Structure formats: C-alpha cells, structure tokens
Amino acid sequence: MSxxxxxxxxxxxxxxxxxxxxxxxxxxxxxxxxxxxxxxxxAFFLKQWGPYNVAVWDTAGDERYSGLSHFYCRSAGxxxxxxxxxxxxxxxxxxxxxxxxxxxxxxxCLKIVVGTxxxxxxxxxxEITIEEGRKLSRDLNEHIDIRKLxxxxxxxxxxxxxxxxxxxxxxxFQYCLPLSADQKKRHRNQQKxxxxxxxxxxxxxxxxxxxx
Amino acid sequence: xxxxxxxAEQIGNTSDSDxxxxxxxxxxxxxGKSENALLVATDSFEDLNYAGLTNGTxxxxxxxxxxxxxxxxxxxxxxxxxxxxxxxxxxxxxSDETTNAVDxxxxxxxxxxxxxxxxxxxxxxxSLNETESLPEEIPMTQLIPxxxxxxxxxxLEWKQQxxxxxxxxxxxxxxxxRHGSEDKLVTIMGVMQALVICTHDFQKDTLRSIVAGDHxxxxxxxxxxxxxxxxxxxxxxxxxxxxxxxxxxxxxxVLTLSTLTRIFKQHxxxxxRRPLSGAEKFFDNLLNLMDVEPGLLLSSVRCxxxxxxxxxxxxxxxxxxxxxxxxxxxxIIAQNQLVTLVRMKKYYIHPMDLHLIINLIxxxxxxxxxxxxxxxxxxxxxxxxxxxxxxxxxxEECHTCLLLLSVDIEAFxxxxxxxxxxxxxxxxxxxxxxxxxxLRRNSYSIxxxxxSDLRHFLYxxxxxxxYTSPELEAPYHTKEEQQRLFDLYHYLHDRIHTSGRxxxxxxxxxxxxxxxxxxxxxxxxxxxxxxxxTKTIAIHAVNKLLRWIKKEEDRLFILSSVTF
Lengths: 212, 564
Ligand SMILES: Nc1nc2c(ncn2[C@@H]2O[C@H](COP(=O)(O)OP(=O)(O)O)[C@@H](O)[C@H]2O)c(=O)[nH]1
Ligand SMILES: [Mg+2]
Known about the structure:
The structure holds 2 protein chains of 2 kinds. Chain A has helices at residues 21-30, 69-73, 88-96, 98-101, 130-140, 165-176, 181-204; strands at 9-14, 42-49, 52-59, 78-84, 110-116, 154-156. By secondary structure, chain A is α/β, with parallel strands linked by helices. Chain A has one domain: 3-Layer(aba) Sandwich (Rossmann fold), CATH 3.40.50. In chain A, strands 2-3-1-4-5-6 form a 6-stranded mixed sheet, with helices on both faces. Chain A is globular. The longest helix of chain B has 22 residues, at 535-556. The interface between A and B is large, with 33 and 45 residues. Strand 2 of chain A pairs antiparallel with strand 9 of chain B. The structure holds guanosine-5'-diphosphate and magnesium ion (MG). Guanosine-5'-diphosphate (GDP) binds next to helix 1 of chain A.
C-alpha cells in the first residue's frame, strides 16, 4: 500500500473511543472482524473503487489527538460519523465534539451517520431511534442536495456480523465517484474474490499472523 | 538471599583508579568508541539529583524551541524561494553543533504552532463541563479509608506488588497508578500528597524518600505533578528516581510541557486523566520495559547486530529516498533494537527520547494494521512541541518498523511515498531479510565470546550511548532468575555510581555468582560470573571480553552517524 498515486477521494471516520471505527474499516477492507487494539493517532488505508483510489483515514477518538483533526479533515469528501447504538453518549458526541472538527472538511463533504454494534442491540432497550439517527444525518447534510441520495445517509451496522458494512462504503463511493452499472459489477466481483481468498488462506495457515 | 550477599573485596577507587586502570586494562582500544556518535552521549543517571528536579522552573528551557526554530526556518526558506540563495539560509541556522540549538527569534513564533493550540483549546472547552469529583484540599477525615477503597488497597495482590508507581496532581488528584484503578486509590494518593505538602509547608523541606520496613518510597515533584515510586526490590533511591523521570518524560511525550503547564496554570484542580485517557498503556508498558530492558537504566540503546555493510546499505537507502524537507529523524527499530538512525545535521537524539519512541512502538499494536500518523513529543529534543511520526512496518510479520519524524504535520503523503521507496529498496537488496535473520538468530549467545564461567554481561560504550549484551540463557532463562539477574545489575550499577565515592572497579562475591563492575571514561561493564571465580581470573576474562567486543564492534554498534 502506498500513497504514491494521489487519491481521488478522501473518506474519514470520526467518533468516540471504542465505538467500533477501526473494526468497521477493517471489516470493509480486509473482509474480517478481529479484535482491534486502540488506534494511536490516525491510520491510513488505501482502497480501490473501480478505476479510483480512495484514501480512508481511521482516527483515534482520544482528546489528546485533536491537534491532528485539521490534518485529516481537510479536503475530506466524505465523513463517517460513528456512534455505538448501545451508548447514547457517543451519539451526543457527534454533535458536541465532531461538528466543529468537520468545519475543515470540504464544503460539500457528505456526512454519513453510522450506528455500530447493532448485533448487541436489544430492541426493547433501544435509546436512539432510527428516526433520530436519520434526522441527525439530514441535519448534518443541509448543504448538499439530499435528493441526489438514494436514502438518508444513515446506517446501522455490525462489523461482527458483517451487516451493512459494504453498503456504507458503496453508498459513499457511488455518491462521490459514481461508477457505471458495469464497472460496479466488476468491482463487486473483485471484492468478492478478495474476501474468498482471505477466507481460504485463513483456513490454510491459521498460525500466520496477518495484519489488516 | 539478598541479605546474605556480602562484598568480598573491592579494589580501586577514585583516587588511585587511574593507575589501577592502566594496570588492569590490557588494551587501550575501547570497544565501540566513536567520535561521530548518533545519540547524545550523556549519562543521565549521574545528572539526576534533587536540586535540579524540585525547583518548579522549566528544566528544559535551554533546549526547548527546537521545533519552532525548525518551523521558522521552513517559513524563512519559503520566503527566500525567490532569490534561490540557499547557502545564505543554511548559514543562519548553524549556530550550535552539539545541542539542539534554539533560534534567537524562536520564542516569538506565532502562526505556526497550531497543533498544540488546538489541543489546548479543546482542553479548556472540556474543562468547563467537568464535574468536580474531588475536593481541592482533602480534609483529614477523608484520609480514613472508606469500605470501597479497602477492597482494593487491602487486597493481597495489590499489596504484594513488587513496585508501585503513582502520579498525583498538585491538588491531590490521582493521575496514574500502575496497579489498581486510580479511583479506588484516591485515599492513599491523598495521604502521600499530604506527606509531600506537609514536609514542604511545615519543614520548608522537600520529601525525597522514606524507608518503611522493606519498602522504599521515593518522591519527585515536577511541574505540578508528584511522582511516587514504592519498591520492595533492589532499586536504589537514585534508580527509582530515574524510573520516575522516565514517567515524567512519558507524560510530556503525550502532552508536551507547554500544554501541561498551561493546563495547571488555568485550572489547578484539573483532572489530568482526561487528556491522558488512552495513554495509560504507554505508562504501563514503559514500566514493564524497565524490568526487562537494561538500556533504560544505562541511558543507552541496544543495536540489532548486523554486518556494517548491510547497515550502511540501509541508512543509504533512507538518505537517498527520504531526503525530504523538515524530516528530522528517520529510524528503523526491530524488536526494541535500533537498526539504523539517520538524522538532520545538527540534531541529535537523546537515549531517553529513543526509549520513549521504542515504547510507543512497543505499546501500540495498531501500527501493525496500517500506516499511521501520530504526534509525539520528545522531551529532551523539545519538551514544548510535537514531532509528527509516520509509523509503518516494512515486513509482513511486523518486526521491522520504520519511523519518520517530521516537524511538518502535512508531510504524511510525502513520507508515505518515501516509505514505499525505502521498502522497495530494502527488499531488493535483501536488507529486510538480513534484519529478520538477525532477529531470528537471537542476538548472540554468551558462548560466542568463549570465556568460561562468564554467564552474562552488559557493556556500554559511553561515547556512543549504546550497549550490548548476550541473550539471556540458562541459568537466567526463567522469569524469577531474570529478575534476580536484574537485581544484581541494579545492585552493581548502584554501588558503582552512587556509593559515596565513585568506584571504578567493583568485585563482588555473592552466593550464586561473582560480579565485576568496571567503569572507565570510555565504557561501563557489568559482568556476571559463576560463583568460584577469583578476582584475577575475572579481570583476565573481562579483558578477553573487551577484545572480543572490539573485534565485533562493527556488528554490535553503530559507530558512525549518517545525516541527511
Ligand atoms: N459486538 C460487536 N462488537 C464490536 C463491533 N465493532 C467493534 N466492536 C468491539 O468494540 C470494541 C472497540 O472497537 P474498535 O474498532 O477498536 O473501536 P474504535 O476505537 O472506534 O476504533 C472492540 O472490542 C471491538 O471488538 C460490532 O459490530 N459488534
Ligand atoms: Mg480505532
């Protein structure tokens, strides 16, 4: 992986400590879920989307790295705002902490609100309703023409159960760097073969430590 | 067993050491000596004394501002772009060779220090909605443990820890504890802060250490924080003080000194755990590292043994492909050992800073997942600002870590390109394989020195601040035995450095082994022999060892420093 080629799109992910940001990215890029150590500083991933290169920045939620936020937010085309569906405080943080950070991003930056760990959610204990999530996602995107989007930029995901993860990224990419139906199909196949390959090799040599 | 250890004999001291030395040292070629060192060669241990630690003024004023001066230089360079006169620009900056010089104007730099200011403004924001969980002055009644505290503090496990480290803020708020949660330890920390304050206020004195039974308490106050170390081990007061200094440096490394002082200037009662949250693992890991890595005690760094041609090749790859503006240091670290270090002319790395870098890598699994970009403050380099570290592993197995430290927060993508090129070249020239081979060979065995009865040693070359030592083998292959060996080294090190007069040679017969410690201008050597070795044999053996190290020095040490 190298930053050699200039990326065509920059996607960042923000959110409180331990809401599952790194797990989400690794599920998408590596196609698997493994225990993540807390992120230190900011981490850079490069992802192919059809003919395009997409830079994905994972960040640590800790306060002490706020000095970095300017750097990774600048010229971001899309920002994933992640919160833990089981922890309402992390939802509040999206407004309280990350709104101002995002002022450094592109003016037309697409903001996607993602509720994580839906697998842990017991419907009767739900504190953040789907409508609240959707509303936040609409409010955050006042500046862009929301009609161009297939639906509100709000998702509920599980990296553990591989639910809705692919969808988040493809939603973003398709909006920012639209592919033709044909290109998209090819991308899907590519993506699938990567995942298959990984799963096979995982069975083959379990002992070998593979990093995402 | 410790108590039975008796000193059998001791030869040489400061007064007659020179004659003794010339007699005993059979060679005048000191292994690993170099005029062209890449690390700052200071013996931080001997610099440690309370006088310098307790007066609350900034201890680092003389070296601070390095980063600002570098950034300033960059700004100047940009404005000078038009007239292309680079030579003139370079000259203005070459004021001091050995210390990290401060530009005259650096103190009034304004626009460019955005990073730190951001953090600081965040911190002030947050302090507004902070709930005051602790009273500012702890009333005496609170010093009596409540039931919830008792569980933790009175648990056997907690009590039996060999060493405790606490950090407390001036107002008595817990900041860090190695064992147990700080919240549960509020009371005990309050007591200790009270001790410090009482001594200070009533006796007009500074509390340094207390010995209670087999426990030793050591106190260090610095920049609104009190560091407390409690040990049942063999560490001396001075050695505990060194450990506390590392803890202090780690705080600075995460926050910077300017942020720390600003926080407490604005809110004396601030809960420092907030900005430090997530950083606890660095403190824990650093303390663990101290128990297994003698480099911290010796203020020196261990290099990965490599053929000097391979090492040269590696540093040239870096010089060639990372010649980038504002890149101050580039280094490769493999399993806590230094592979290579390339530095900007005029700037040196202090071994204590290098240990913080090693600790950062050692404690962060997340670097193995992706290229990372993180701020790090190196207190000896510049306590008041952050460097940005581009961190990446060069091999699939994640053994070999490349760090590129820049003053430019925007430099990530450029450095990422450099990294790709460096990696490509290191793969092409089989250098990564050489590193991995060396790692697999496990440094070297004591048997390679072919000196009978020599079981283990630490050799530090003082001019280059590097040390070497063989693998830990039988009888030191169990955890307990390793701990005992470390205790012996602590004992020897302490006797030689801090026992009233400075000793040059110490011969010591213990129940299980015989120790020889030897300190000269050029080196420090700590050797552990089997129990039946006499002084003459030991001295002879050590001379043989010095010759062996001399023969191997190109492989064991980095003797010349490479600059961009
Ligand atoms: N059950 C469940 N746990 C998750 C999920 N995603 C993350 N986690 C766990 O949440 C914790 C924090 O995850 P991490 O990705 O490191 O969070 P980050 O700090 O936001 O990057 C880890 O223990 C993960 O295993 C999920 O979808 N389901
Ligand atoms: Mg993370």
